[in-house]
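Lab notebook, page 48
Experiment: co-folding of the full assembly
Goal: obtain a model of how the components sit together before planning crosslinking
Operator: M.T.
Materials (sequences as entered):
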Amino acid sequence: MVLQDDRPRRARDGDLSAFNELVVDYQSLVYNLCYRMLGQAQAAEDTAQEAFVSAWRNIASFRGESFRPWLLRIAANLCRDELRRRVRRPSSSLDSALEAGVPEPPDDDPLPEEEALAAELRSNLETALLELPLEQRTAIVLCDVEGLDYAEIATAMKTSLGTVKSRISRARLRMRDVMLRQPELLPARFRQGG
Amino acid sequence: MTWFRRSAHPEDQLSAYADGELDGRAHSAVEAHLAGCDDCSRLLEELQAAKLALTELPRLEPRRSFVLGPEHAVASRPERRRASFTFAPAAALTVLMALLFVDAVDFSGGSSNDSFSSAGSTANSRSESAATALDSQTQLESTAGGTAASDASAPTAGGAAAPEAGGGATSALAPPVEQPGDGLDKSAIEEPAGDDGAGESGTSGAGVTQDEAQSRGQSALTDDSSDGPPLLRILEAVAAIVLVASSVVVFGPRLIRRGAR
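Observation: model returned without errors.
Model output:
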């Protein structure tokens, strides 16, 4: 995504309208990260909103590096805090969080059986994502779902490139294992490519 | 699936290889290995399939916008001002430390200067001695038993000036003299107003006069410098107030926010 370079700087100088332009550009990205981290639409919305408010309040700490990983770091930290709060509140189970997920997006003229298989595969992957250790989940979501490169992920997670590579490697192996448990769910292109 | 000895196959490199994140040398090494290893090639394909499957997860759109309202604009501006004002406590502290240093040097420098300029001060006092002699005598008598600290500086000057010249030169400047019963006063009173009383006048009152001259020189100098401390005190107080106020402005809200979290 190509953005005007001066918007983060103007936001840092106190220009709320410039910051809100960035919000519009990044809200889907942040929301998807929060949803994939938390597995719950409402919690994802609340956390995403909190992330933007926090980013605005701390805009002075933005030093001119890439805005996207800086913003996603804030969102990832808030997701981590929310997950820790859930651990302290046992009534919030992971299963109930998954059940409260968003509706399936419509496919373009899918075959019923194929659609069902695809939906089941997605469900398995989403469940597997939420079962990953927090740091691996963050890394793999930022990489495969959000499309960040390893350097951006290292910035967003405030860690080294080597650690990012290790976390992504382990997370992707686990995702691969999930897919191999039910190979019949894999579309033909996956099986042929595998 | 048969797994191989980890040390023989770059399994932990395959994801980075699939993502294009290996540097030239590592990329070439993995590529060379893949060319001759079917198992690693298969694993690479499975990892690429997992990556693709995650990439194809539906991209969700939030049900609402997260754009911030105007109330956030008001709340955010102080952050920016405070960020630019952060230097104020440090600057105030620096100024305060400098003033305290000058204050300390001023006191110690005043006494050391006395040793150099006591003769000169007594000479000056001689020139003024006629006019101030009576005043200094009066002060000596009335302030007998004055505090030692203040007396140590000023009074000696006044006391010395009187005997020397028969009229303490700077005694007019000096606060009450220290030791009335010292004999100094007496000698001052008894001493005829003379010109040579100063440094050399020590002979007439003998050692007493010399001591008086030196002490008066000291006190004269310290008297001159007595204008410094009050001004320094004021500046120090102002710097301290600025330091406290700026610290509260800069750090107070941050502490409150941390407490709220």
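Interpretation: Chain A touches chain B through 56 residues (CB under 8 Å).
Next step: discuss with group before ordering constructs.
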